[in-house]
Amino acid sequence: MKSRLNTLAARTLSTTLCGAVLVAFGGSNATAGSIYSGRSVTTTPTAPTTSTATTTPAPTAAAITNVRLENTSATVAQNNVPVTFGQVFAVGHLAKGTALAGRLDDGSALPLQVDVKATHPDGSVRHAVISAVLPTLGAGQTRTMELVPNGTAAAATTPSASSMLSNGVTASVSATIGGVRYTASADELIKAGKATTWLAGPTTSEWLVTAPLKTSSGVAHPHLSARFAVRWYEAAKKARVDVTLENSWAYEANPQNFTYDAEVMVSGKAVFTKPALTHLHHARWRQTFWSTGAAPTLNVKQNIAYLVGSRALPNFDTSLKVPETAIVAQEKRWLASNRAPMGLGMAIAYMPTTGGRGDIGLLPNWGAMYLLSMDRRMREATLGTADLAGSWSTHYRDKNTGQPISLIDYPYMTIMARPTDTKNPATGKYEAFPLCDKTTVCKTPYTHDVSHQPAFAYLPYLVTGDHYYLEELQFWSMYNVFQSHPSYRQNIKGLVQPEQVRGQAWSLRTLAEAAYITPDNDRLKSHFNRILDSNLDWYNATYSNNASANKLGAIVNGYAITYYSKTSLAPWMDDFFTSAIGHTAELGYTKAVPLLKWKVGFPVQRLTGAGACYIRAAMYTMVLRDSATSPVYSTIGEAFAKSDTKDFNADFLKLQCGSAAMATVLKLKTGEMTGYSSIPTGYPSNMQPAVAYAQDAGGTAGAAAWTKFMSRTVKPDYAKEPQFAIIPR
Questions:
Q1: Sheet of 125-137, strand order
Q2: What is the pLDDT of residues 536-587, one digit of tens each?
Q3: Fewer CB in 10 Å around end: N or C, the chain?
């Protein structure tokens, strides 16, 4: 459906919410002084269940939101169930220094450990990792737990690994190459005091350790390194062991694929073996285990309306009910996919594949289905595919920092340019990566790009707080800004403007999400914010603050006007960009607001402008100028007239917009838009998020455009494929 274009070079301010609390059981999420209007957020509480496990009464304060704790086993009851999840909070809902308690559906209290990771500009909590040990969970039972403010937070206790180690928790990973066994041990690293702390408190502690794989004589493998995240629940006497094996050093000489026999040991038992595993260059794989054997059969079902109402996620239509048939179909696809290390799960191996795709959008189809259903099967597919996002050769780690490599540190690094183009004048050093022959030692079955890139890791990190997903988001975000030629992106600025418009859209989406959710104490947060700021400055200077910018609201830089001898662009690509900027503005990046207000002019004019016909608002290509050197038309009417002249005969120009006669010529139903209007991935569907943001940011004109858009007579069933089911606030 959509053709691939060749590329030349292959978001912290936050909006302030009103004092009214956005709670799980009603309230307004209006933003004071913002361009958006509020919409009530409500849920139906789960019926109470009887439990005598705890007797401590819960605080009586109003809840901020809730989660449901589902035992996914219909036959096995559980005791002392470890629970950890990520929770996003709207601005001002959990004030700095405020404690949080769990209020169960029987009225009892559940102590919570809250590890704050990111905060809003007002100091209130933006994102936290919440942990508890649930005393009982019956077979097939779902319990509701409200999150309730509870006075002043006490200082976190000092984590200690001695209890975990004394309970026999050990973990190691090994790779045997040509008969030589290379190993790294998490417990030995923890004993040696080489751990950093990710979670710390009375409920759980999690330690991050990393080391190169070494032989028995201590010789380190130059490329293969292990990373462990070991989470210990003291009351449950259980540990979750998260093992990642990487081949990802950015500047190590002779990068290549490695084939080895892999083994993971946990508490003295082999829990994973994989012979002859080919580990691709600049890629990584992850496996997670429990020290006691089977993982708890638990699904944390978060409050969908609150997640969306917080503005951390786009305003997906929460009235949609994902049908069981669609979930079963996606589960089958997930289970049939390659889920082993170096597999891809739900992703497409050749990322530039053309046509309507379930992985394109602000969220991929599987992520949107998970968000709107909170179904355990969609959670597995979403988190599993995020695990496997490590299989792509986009992972470049800096040995100096131990983190995903940063453009701020190496402003001249690149994938595309010649090594001679990477000299940093400030240091006098070339920042080219060591050469890697992609036809031999670095051959990979996968092709990635920026123009068709799914949103792999943001939602998974948001709802789990797992460090792996945070880094996955950071890896992809940095890759998107350093892969191009240094001069085209203006070096350290990391401008994405040279890419296809859809590439600009998805790069900005991922960059804004990384800037928004990266923890405050992570040095990369300021890096992502700086790069995002540079990009927004460029777009505002080029468009929204530029009196000479085109009057249509269309992105025309980069590879925008490339069709038909560089006279036409793809409106659907432009709609992707509008939706990405709308999402960025909702995340609180004030520099995105003027750009969004300017940008929504394009979908608004295509639907309601003089001389435009909404039936054709989502056409595949639109003529915007007479020749490659001509100026862009000043009115949408001229663009429609020239486009209609190109696509139809003279008689079509005389037809009344939306008439039965027009429908006959187009072979559509009366009032049906062109561009596969009944398909959830058709061009009108691609347009919907842009029009939703237009109503939010475009005033009366935006509201009129949304009304016109919703008057179309043929609409898709988004319940089965909801990635474009975004509606106005």
A1: 78-88, 125-137, 113-119
A2: 999 999 999 999 999 999 999 989 999 999 999 999 999 999 999 999 999 9
A3: N
**Separation between Cα atoms, residue 273 and residue 261, nearest integer Å:** 7
Contact predicate 486/474, CB 8 Å? no
Comparison of pLDDT for 300 and 13, the residue scoring more: 300
Q: What angle do CA 359, 306, 364 make, to 5 degrees?
A: 0
What are the two backbone dihedrals, phi and then psi, of residue 500, each rounded to the nearest 5 degrees? -55, 155
Where does residue 494 fall: left (phi above 0), alpha (psi -120 to 50 degrees), or beta otherwise?
left
Provide the token pair at 85: 């999840």
The answer to whether residues 725 and 327 touch, using CB atoms and an 8 Å cutoff, is no
522 near 592, Cβ under 8 Å? Answer: no
Strand-pairing partners, residue 549, are none
pTM strictly above 0.85: yes
**SS3 track for 273-333:** EEEEEEECCCEEEEEEEECCECCCCEEEEECHHHHHHCCCCCCECCCCCCCHHHHHHHHHH
CA distance 168 to 314: 45
- By C-alpha distance, which of 583, 513, 518, 614 is closest to 723? 583
Is the predicted pLDDT of residue 156 greater than 90, yes or no? no
Residue 245 pLDDT: 98
Location of structure tokens 């050749």 = 350
Token pair in block for residue 695: 């109503």
Considering only CA atoms, which of 252, 261, 123, 112 is closest in space to residue 182?
261
Report whether 617 contacts 603 (CB < 8 A). yes
Task: Note the residue count of the chain.
Answer: 729
The separation between CA 146 and the C-alpha centre of its own chain, rounded to angstroms, equals 26
Sign of CA dihedral 479, 405, 118, 288: positive
* CA geometry: angle 662, 666, 668, nearest 5 deg: 95
Which structure tokens are listed for 104?
């169960």
Q: What is the 3-class SS of 618-641, one letter each residue?
A: CCCCEECCCCCCCCCCCCHHHHHH
Q: How far apart are CA 305 and CA 320, in angstroms?
A: 12
Identify how many contiguous H helices and E strands the chain contains and give both numbers: 18, 21
CA 371 to chain CA centroid, Å, is 12
Give the whole-angstrom CA distance, residue 632 versus residue 692.
Answer: 26
| Contact (CB, 8 A) for 104 and 144 | yes
Amino acid at 363: L
| Non-local CB neighbours of 331 within 8 Å, separated by 6+ positions | 377, 378, 380, 381
- Give me the amino acid identity at 254: N
User: Comparing C-alpha atoms, which of 310, 327, 316 is closest to residue 368?
Assistant: 316
- pLDDT at position 155 is 78
Helix, strand, or coil here: 606?
helix
Contact 374, 459 (CB under 8 A): no
Q: Which residues contact 361 (CB under 8 A, 6 or more apart)?
A: 368, 455, 579, 689, 723, 724
